[in-house]
Each structure stands twice: as structure tokens, then as C-alpha cells.
Design a protein that fits this description.
Length: 289
């Protein structure tokens, strides 16, 4: 393919996109509840079980090849021209899964090489990879498990408290403090990053937003920005644009004064009266782990 060139210049040659490889990690994760109603989280890594993979293929579709764990790592994924292309299909297998497991997520790592870096109070870095989270639930019990349905998505409950508990089971991300900086080159703004909004599970209000309303930086946000070289102690002109939602301050960056904005923005749900309202589909989502 050929790149875009300015007037009077020769277009830059760009290497064509070729087939890709996929080195996945599949993790089955969820909660089991004991006889006293206490939940505990369990994890399972996929296993290489070729005979089981063959049996699954025979059951699902004998005419469609399902690659096992090793085969999918060796396969080349071709570039496709339409959504109707057959693609490459595979199967992940787990064994010895606790039969009490009801709220289940499958985390797929390796689809993208995107990552984010988090900083704690001591300035230590944690590298988190962008991961696809697929959500399922199983309405049933440990009896006659082969007859239980596995439903794609998460269950919905008319009881607000029960729904909040279900959201916690799936570790659904709440609102985040996202930081933006003015960018003169594009006459707009650039996204720097963000952290958890520290939202209370009963009031659905951010516990850190009142600090920002007072002109104070919450410690996690201050540490996060410091990790990227932004010293908020030198910030000036701090003001609240929308109480509890949006704030701005001035800070020099690369020798020039810039305007920064902090926004408390929802991802998958937001407060709605005494409950919450979902903003996106919850069958799958992208998270950093």
C-alpha cells in the first residue's frame, strides 16, 4: 500500500499488512459461594487437551476445524476483506472447574499489545495489559450440570442492591478520573490517562470528588500524574468547572503553560436516581489486568 503524501512529494511506501500470529492466554475466573454464603474468587488457566478439543468439535460442528491450544499458536491469521470471511476458529479447555461456579468471566490476553502503567503511593509501577473480558453466567447448581445453560452476558436484577452485587462479581469498572491536556498543534486536547473514580457502592458518589471541589488533589491522582512527570504541587489557577464532575488547572509542560482538565467520566454505568444505569453492552468489555 502507499502512504499519503503532501503536494509535490512522492508518496511513502508502506509495507502491506500480512498475516498475523496469535499467542493467547485464556483465563477462566469467577466466584464460588460456600454453605455460609461467603464468596471466593477462583482462576483456571486453559490446558492442552487435544482429545477433548476433538470431542468438542464433533459436538459443535464436525465440518468446522477448531484449533487446539498448540495449533492456534502456530496458525497464521490471514488478512480478511469482509466480515463474511470464514476466519480461524479455536477452542479453549479447562478442567477440574468448581461446579459451584456461577458468575464467570473468560479473560483473553494476546489480542492486542496495548498496555497501561499504574503508580502506587510509593511510585512503584505496575504494568497492566489490555485484555478482552467475556462474561457468562450459569443459572443452576451442582446437580446435573450437563443440563445447565451457560448464558452469554451478565444477569440483571430489578433489585438495585442485588444488581450492584452482581456488578462487583464481574468487577465491572466504575467511573474514572480522566485527565486531558490542551494540544495547540491540533487545536484541541490530548488524553493523558486516568484512575479509578473511587465511587461508593451505596451512594454511587465519588469519595475523592469532594477533595477536588476544594482544590485538593486526591493522593492516588497526584501520584499517577507524578509518575508521568507532572508535579501538581506547581499547579496554579485550579478551579471547579462542574462540581463533582469537572475541574481545571494550569501547569507548565515542555516549557509552555498548558491547561489540564480532570473529568469524572462513566465507563459502563453511571448513577441514575437511587440506582445505576448501564451505558454499554456487558457481554464483553476491554479491561487492563
Amino acid at each position: 500500500k502507499t502512504g499519503v503524501a503532501k503536494e509535490g512529494e512522492e508518496p511513502e511506501e508502506v509495507a502491506p499488512v500480512g498475516p498475523k500470529r496469535f499467542l493467547p492466554q485464556f483465563t477462566l475466573e469467577g466466584l464460588v459461594v460456600d454453605d455460609e454464603g461467603v464468596y471466593s474468587r477462583v482462576q483456571y488457566r486453559d490446558e492442552f487437551m487435544p482429545e477433548v478439543s476433538k470431542a468438542i468439535q464433533k459436538f459443535e460442528d464436525p465440518n468446522r476445524r477448531l484449533l487446539n491450544q498448540q495449533e492456534i499458536e502456530q496458525a497464521e491469521f490471514p488478512v480478511v476483506s469482509s466480515d463474511d470471511a470464514p476466519g480461524v476458529w479455536g477452542v479453549a479447555v479447562w478442567s477440574e472447574v468448581d461446579p459451584r461456579l456461577d458468575y464467570v468471566s473468560v479473560f483473553v490476553r494476546g489480542i492486542t499489545n496495548a498496555y497501561t502503567i499504574e503508580f502506587d503511593a510509593e511510585g512503584n509501577q505496575t504494568l497492566r495489559h489490555k485484555t478482552l473480558q467475556l462474561n457468562y453466567w450459569r443459572p443452576g447448581d451442582v446437580v446435573e450440570q450437563t443440563r445447565d445453560k451457560i448464558i452469554y452476558g451478565i444477569p440483571f436484577d430489578s433489585n438495585v442492591l442485588s444488581q450492584i452485587q452482581i456488578c462487583k462479581h464481574y468487577q465491572l469498572p466504575g467511573p474514572r478520573f480522566n485527565v486531558y491536556i490542551t494540544n495547540k498543534e491540533i487545536d484541541g486536547e490530548a488524553y493523558i490517562g486516568g484512575i479509578n473514580g473511587e465511587v461508593d457502592s451505596e451512594s454511587f458518589d465519588s469519595l475523592a470528588a469532594p477533595q477536588l471541589d476544594k482544590g485538593e488533589f486526591p493522593e492516588p491522582l497526584s501520584n499517577y500524574l507524578a509518575g508521568y512527570g507532572f508535579d501538581v504541587t506547581a499547579a496554579s489557577g485550579f478551579k471547579t468547572l462542574i462540581p463533582g464532575e469537572k475541574w481545571a488547572f494550569n501547569l507548565d509542560f515542555q516549557g509552555e503553560p498548558r491547561v489540564f482538565e480532570i473529568r469524572l467520566e462513566p465507563e459502563f454505568w453511571q448513577k441514575d436516581g437511587k440506582g445505576i444505569r448501564f451505558l454499554k453492552r456487558l457481554e464483553y468489555l476491554w479491561v487492563y489486568r
